[in-house]
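Suppose you are handed a protein chain with no further information: no name, no annotation, nothing but its sequence. What can you learn? This example shows the usual starting point.
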Amino acid sequence: MAEDDYANDVLVSADWVADNLERFESDGPDYRLVEVDVDTEAYEEAHAPGAVGFNWETQLQDQTTRDVLTKADFEELLGSHGITEDSTVVLYGDNSNWFAAYTYWQLKYYGHDDVKLLDGGREYWLENDYPTTDEVPEFSAVEYTASGPRESIRAYREDVENAIERGLPLVDVRSPEEFTGEVLAPPGLQETAQRGGHVPGAKNISWAAVTNDDGTFKTRDELEELYADEGIDGTGTTVAYCRIGERSSVAWFALHELLGYEDAVNYDGSWTEWGNLVGVPVETGEGGD
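A reasonable first move is to predict its three-dimensional structure. Written in structure tokens, the prediction is:
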């Protein structure tokens, strides 16, 4: 892929979104802009005109099983916001697109092809004075028919065990303190695990390492070098994980969508699953060698 073509099919700029707001504000289902945050408080204060708001915590995961939405619930959520399987969906959100990237991954899991991230996310939109509103749009409900699930982009416990056994690349995108086991979660976050540490053999490559200071993604060459320095070049399956699967979605996006490493997978169970399992191997300290 030439650098000139880099990310054109999966990333859009804030300028492009601003130039196409009329499309996103239209009741027709061709284009839909979606802000995804851990909750909707920030969205309710200000968001891009025409954007609908998804609450990652309550709307994008099953509330009983701590899993992705069922196909039926996924179809209901998207259809109720005027999104069809043929809509061009542009996602953005807080924390440099943590939760938007997770939603991107979930849309891909259920077979939605035409989905993109707004490069830089919510902070970039606000800090660069793009238009905002507190008006919540209402779009006519439509039918959404999901395909998939596409299991080829998702990792489960057995896939992690297989990666350990075969020496396949594991990317832990959490903070160094989480990786070494000093802390169980970022400050202020309650969902943790019984044990701290990391999956044996994992490399600690922060999710933030793939983005610039303004939240936009780094260039292809920069991303290739970042991962190649840790021996990751797209050969074999690469498993990304974090605490609950949202930060690792950013790394998965960089690996799978930007670099085109087709065998990159997201372990969305992540440390809240692995760190609570009985009998699985855990390393503490710097490790990763």
